[in-house]
Write a structure and sequence with these properties.
This protein is mainly alpha-helical. About 50% of the residues lie in helices and about 10% in strands. The protein starts with 20 loop residues before the first helix and ends with a helix. Bound molecules: manganese (III) ion.
Length: about 200
Amino acid sequence: MSFKLPDLKYDYNALEPYIDAQTMEIHHTKHHGGYTTKLNAALEAENVSGKSIEEILGSVSKYNMGIRNNGGGYFNHNLFWEIMSPNGGGNPTGDIGNAIAETFGSYDKFKDEFANAAATRFGSGWAWLVKENGKLKIGSTPNQDNPLMDVSDFKGQPLLGLDVWEHAYYLKYQNRRPEYIDAFFNVINWDKVNELFKG
Ligand code: MN3
C-alpha cells in the first residue's frame, strides 16, 4: 500500500492572478510529489502499513522525523488544493459563515486574525482554521506539522490551511508574504470548508 499524489480538480493556471500557474505546477508536482514519495519510503523503512494518514499523524510521536515531515506535507497539501477553487472567495456561506460570525464577530475580523496567524508564523509553516469540540480556532504550526499531530501545540480538526512556506509564493510575491495572504482569501473554496465543518 502506498499514498498517491492526488490530481488537482482545476488547471495550474486556474487560480490566476492570485496564485500563478508556475508556482502551482512546481508546488504540486515537485513539492507535494516529493513529500508523497518520501512518505512512502519512510513508511516502508519502518514497516508501517494499512494505516490512514490521519491515524499516522495522530500518533506521529511514535515515528521518525521522516514520517512526521513528509506525512504532514502529504496531508497538508491534499487539504490545501481542496480548500481552494477558481470559483472560490467571497463571504463564507452556510453553517461555516454563521460559525465564523459568531466566533470572531465578523468575516472581516476572522480575516484579520487568520492573516495575522499566517504573517507572524516565523519561517516555514502553516496557518489554520480548525474545529475543536465544536468550536472554531485560528492558529499556526511550524514546518509541515499540523493540528492532527499528537506532537502539535495547536490541535483540532483542520478546516482551512494556508501554506506560508516561501515555495508557496516566492515566484510571484517574493518577500511580500502579506500580499499572498490577502490574495488567498479570493480563492477559498467555502463549499469544501463547509463540508469539512459538518463532517
Ligand atoms: Mn508547500
